[in-house]
Automatic annotation (TrEMBL):
Highest taxon in the source lineage: Bacteria
Transmembrane segments: 12-44, 56-85
Protein name: YvqI
Species, as recorded: Bacillus atrophaeus (strain 1942)
Keywords from the UniProt entry: Membrane, Transmembrane, Transmembrane helix
Length: 126
């Protein structure tokens, strides 16, 4: 794999996104998020059926639980965006011809540089 700036940047975005996603290992907000979503859904269904009071109560409680989980949702969304764009950068970066790979010329006895030719010429003159 050829490593260039886009590939390295994509890798760093992926690593940072994963660390944000798993940062702290605290997934306790998933339970209130699921309960809040279910309560909001139940409240909307009850409100649509004509049970306005219980629909508003369930919907309000569900909405409050979802709003309290908003920082968790933003963090998860940010992590997903970073991983997506990092992966995209890595895939696009490996296709470019502009690479920073190190490919030295092999050293052999038959290999001569300009310096070698000039040195040989200098020694012949002496």
């Amino acid at each position: 794999m050829n490593i260039n700036v886009k590939t390295a940047g994509g890798f760093l975005l992926i690593v940072f996104g994963i660390s944000v996603f798993f940062g702290g290992g605290n997934f306790a907000f998933i339970i209130p998020l699921a309960i809040g979503g279910l309560l909001l859904y139940a409240g909307i269904k009850r409100f649509a059926k004509g049970k306005t009071v219980t629909g508003i109560i369930f919907g309000g409680i569900g909405a409050m639980m979802l709003v309290s989980s908003l920082p968790f949702l933003v963090g998860i969304a940010l992590a997903a965006v970073m991983v997506y764009f990092g992966w995209k950068m890595m895939k696009n970066g490996s296709d470019e011809s502009r690479t920073a790979s190190f490919d030295p010329e092999p050293a052999s006895a038959a290999y001569e540089s300009n310096f070698d030719a000039e040195w040989e010429e200098f020694l012949k003159k002496k």
